Amino acid sequence: MTGKHIWRKKGRTVNRKIWVTYGAEMLREAGIDNPDGEAWYLFSHCFSLSREEYLFSMTTPVEEGEELEQYKALLDRRISERIPLQYLIGTQDFMGYTFRVTPDVLIPRQDTESVIEAVVEGNYPHESILDVCTGSGCIAISLCLMLKPDVCIGTDIDEKALKIAKENGRRLAPMVKFKKSDLFSGVDGCFDLIISNPPYIPTKDCMELMPEVKDHEPMLALDGREDGLYFYRKLAGTAPKHLNAGGTLVFEIGYDQGAAVKTMMEEAGFSSVEIKKDLAGLDRMVIGTLA
């Protein structure tokens, strides 16, 4: 019996565990990654349940009503439209904080958590921080909450993304300031730490991405132009004008871009440039100090 069959059992009441199990089965049949986890998140979102509340009430019958209809509708949309889970429920956890996300911003990912952790553990100067291409604001906000700088600014060229970043900032870290800027065009002053996760996917590869990404996440935040390195060139070449002496530049990168970005930074005057890996063992960031 597949998950969709349970919806046709008129008058039948089933419990919470069965609904989560059937949702997972539907997602699995559709080829969705992590079907058990996604079914649980959709169910918990619709019924406003914590994990503990669910575990102690798995056998509670689920009556027909608004919550159940919403759950069924979100499962259908996840399967038929391939809308990412995070956009369906409107949030994504990152570094222990919950961020609001919409299709106007990239979904924060675990890969980026590795970058944040490296920055925090690296003990770089951080009294002033600039996050370029901030998107949801997850990098700027997380670093502000963890490192407590005197100044923390996030910039983005996209007004829609900035609206989400500002919403996250008001709720999580009101001290972070967000402003519109095309890379450094709207930035004044110098900073101890500049960090950026710019668009880095080559244009030709963008249409080969999984449907959840290419059909729903903002292409403006994905497309790194012809070779994927366009924004690194612009940022690395200009960053020294916006860094204090001894300041640090941090880039998140694609797995195969480390050597190229390292060379760019060295040519721009950065020293002690390092390529660091993420938890999967892939090159994920390049970090250098302005001499």
From TrEMBL:
Enzyme kind, highest EC tier: transferase
Domain Release factor glutamine methyltransferase N-terminal: 19-90
Keywords, ordered alphabetically: Methyltransferase, S-adenosyl-L-methionine, Transferase
GO MF: nucleic acid binding; peptide chain release factor N(5)-glutamine methyltransferase activity
One of the Pfam families matching this protein, by short name: PrmC_N
Residues that bind S-adenosyl-L-methionine: D156, N197
Listed EC numbers: 2.1.1.297
Domain Methyltransferase small: 126-202
Highest taxon of the lineage: Bacteria
The keyword Methyltransferase appears for this protein: yes
InterPro entries reported for this sequence: DNA_methylase_N6_adenine_CS, HemK-like, N5-glutamine_MTase, PrmC_N, RF_methyltr_PrmC, SAM-dependent_MTases_sf, Small_mtfrase_dom
GO-annotated biological processes: methylation
Catalytic activity field: L-glutaminyl-[peptide chain release factor] + S-adenosyl-L-methionine = N(5)-methyl-L-glutaminyl-[peptide chain release factor] + S-adenosyl-L-homocysteine + H(+)
Functional summary from the UniProt entry: Methylates the class 1 translation termination release factors RF1/PrfA and RF2/PrfB on the glutamine residue of the universally conserved GGQ motif.
Family: Belongs to the protein N5-glutamine methyltransferase family. PrmC subfamily.
NCBIfam families documented for this protein: hemK_fam, RF_mod_PrmC
UniProt name for this protein: Release factor glutamine methyltransferase
Annotated source species: Anaerostipes caccae
